[in-house]
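queue> pop job 88
queue> type: inverse folding (structure -> sequence)
queue> payload:
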């Protein structure tokens, strides 16, 4: 299949509200073979500890992504013309068996990695990033640039439960998937369970940039440091929608006031150029708590920003 066949539906010919919903109105294909970037959904929130609903995120992000057009208005990038991109559907999930759910997600993403495509997923709660990393980082650990209100490096919840959306990056470090010294977390804020809640993460070498520091320094300076921390090695980008202030993204499981504006979030993602991205996700969009689809639209927009950066990376490696 030629590159030109992986194109979104033209909204001037077919209205945005018509047709089968897919990410960015791209073709839906059954296999990642031949793709540079594979868009996929993870409709699973088995790690949620409070407000469930992120299992419905991929479907609504697909709906709202119909508002994305072909060309990035700032960079002039037309991602669908410089990279082969398609929607490969949702990975398998198990809504009643957590460990089997993690296995199915890992297997689904492993198919993408084996085909040589870069996975760009829509969650789902943040625990879904752990099985994605198991597939992406199977051969070597990855660094990470992580946008979130929460560090997600806690140890356990409700007794001996090791796998929740508050623990994925602790598990990823323990499993040798994530290099903490090449990891930066941006936008962390809100009340915490214990004064030393973030001590373990710091001890491993994770750089935590609290929201207050971001406000003082600004996006360009913070992202310059983030790129430096990630270095030249393989890097994963994880974007939890709750990094955005709930006034602009209310549809999420654990909202925290005082977050990024959507404009600040876009600016930071545009500053990822030069990072060697091997996978990315947008997680924690929970449509049952949304208002007028605004959170899902924010999620779709952040996916488009990531897609544009990754497409330029794919194009540059082909030269």
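queue> result:
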């Amino acid at each position: 299949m030629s590159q030109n066949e992986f194109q979104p539906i033209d909204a001037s010919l077919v209205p945005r509200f018509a047709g089968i919903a897919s990410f960015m109105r791209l073709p839906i294909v059954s296999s990642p073979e031949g793709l540079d970037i594979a868009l996929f959904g993870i409709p699973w929130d088995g790690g949620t500890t409070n407000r469930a609903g992120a299992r419905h995120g991929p479907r609504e992000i697909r709906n709202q992504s119909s508002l994305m057009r072909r060309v990035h208005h700032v960079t002039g990038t037309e991602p669908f013309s410089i990279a082969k991109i398609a929607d490969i559907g949702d990975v398998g999930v198990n809504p009643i068996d957590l460990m089997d759910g993690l296995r199915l997600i890992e297997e689904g993403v492993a198919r993408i990695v084996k085909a040589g495509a870069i996975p760009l997923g829509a969650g789902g709660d943040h625990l879904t990033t752990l099985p994605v990393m198991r597939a992406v980082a199977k051969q070597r650990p990855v660094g990470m640039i992580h946008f979130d209100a929460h560090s997600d490096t806690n140890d356990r919840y409700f007794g001996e439960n090791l796998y929740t959306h508050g623990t994925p990056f602790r598990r990823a470090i323990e499993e040798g998937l994530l290099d903490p010294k090449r990891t930066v977390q941006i936008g962390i804020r809100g009340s915490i369970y214990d004064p030393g809640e973030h001590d373990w993460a710091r001890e491993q070498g994770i750089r935590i940039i609290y929201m207050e520091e971001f406000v003082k320094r600004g996006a360009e300076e913070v992202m310059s440091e983030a790129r430096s921390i990630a270095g030249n090695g393989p890097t994963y980008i994880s974007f939890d929608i709750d990094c955005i202030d709930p006034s602009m993204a209310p549809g999420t499981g654990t909202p925290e006031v005082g977050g990024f504006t959507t404009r600040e979030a876009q600016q930071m993602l545009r500053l990822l150029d030069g990072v060697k991205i091997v996978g990315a996700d947008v997680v924690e969009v929970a449509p049952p708590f949304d208002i007028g689809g605004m959170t899902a639209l924010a999620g779709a927009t952040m996916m488009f920003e990531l897609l544009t950066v990754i497409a330029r990376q794919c194009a540059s490696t082909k030269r």
